[in-house]
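Batch manifest line 319
LIGAND: adenosine-5'-triphosphate
JOB: complex structure
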Amino acid sequence: MIHARDLTRTFKTKAGAVEAVRGLSLDVAEGELVAFLGPNGAGKSTSVRMLTTLLPPTSGTASVGGSDVVAEPAAVRRKIGYVGQKNGAGVYYKVRNELLTQGRAQRMDPAVARRRADELIEMLELTGLEDRTGAKLSGGQKRRLDVALGLMHNPEILFLDEPTTGLDPHSRANLWEHIDRLRKATGMTIFLTTHYLDEADTMAERVMIMDNGRLIADDTPARLKADLAGDRISVSLTSTTEAEQAAGIAANLPGARETEVCGYSVAVTVREGEAILPEFIRRLHEVGAQVATASVKRPTLDDVFLGLTGRSLRESAVG
Ligand SMILES: Nc1ncnc2c1ncn2[C@@H]1O[C@H](COP(=O)(O)OP(=O)(O)OP(=O)(O)O)[C@@H](O)[C@H]1O
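JOB STATUS: finished
ARTIFACT:
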């Protein structure tokens, strides 16, 4: 559904050239939900703007829904819905009128547009708000209207640029319920950018991580966490001698990485912590070591980014 090969985009600024995207290649299959993650300035929005025909690439190629983004931009636009960070609903227009205006902009037949508007009002729980202006909607309601606007022409692929930024946790969860329902009902392909790592982790089937204009990881959240971060087992003992002994045992556990001793404690990274911990404790008991506490910390996508770049995704920004 979405294919890019060696896509680059350079901006010329007074301070010099900014290479916002450097050789991006990606493939998204029909019906997938892909989350695009990365620190501020990594190149996510620039990539999405190229894929949605809003910005011409400096070099490289991309096709979306089978049409080339440079040669056939109109065909791409017919197949995609784009909900940007700023291109959403206005504050002066009423909900239903806004949807109908969007239908006109998409050259939809007026009767079809009216039916579609009613369908979307129901689907995105905007019933009862049809005659309210954008200014009188809550953050969550407004964002649902933004999504409805992007869906008016029944696109096959939906691009969402930070759909939940600025929403409270309840509205975030609610918007996700709607996105999930929409996917189940239509099988739509969804490509979104987000700053919420937990959201990408639980909702996306595939996560792409961008840093400094390049794609540095592309896999399911579970595989990224197992392969690039791993579970952290921590065990505390009753003396530093025992801790040193435990570190030697930890280093020989199946798939052990990064063993660390600190005082009475030892920590080790493994692929499947919950399966390995009983074996670790058994081996410690075998040598007579006394285990005081034991825990397993599951990795987050931030740990994945940290493993890849040595920086935290939560705190880092490029440039
Ligand atoms: N029109 C422009 N002119 C000059 N530089 C630009 C322009 N648009 C983006 N950039 C630069 O390109 C780089 C990538 O920006 P982009 O907005 O794609 O990042 P992002 O990952 O979407 O960041 P954020 O998470 O903050 O939205 C940044 O260094 C940014 O300053």
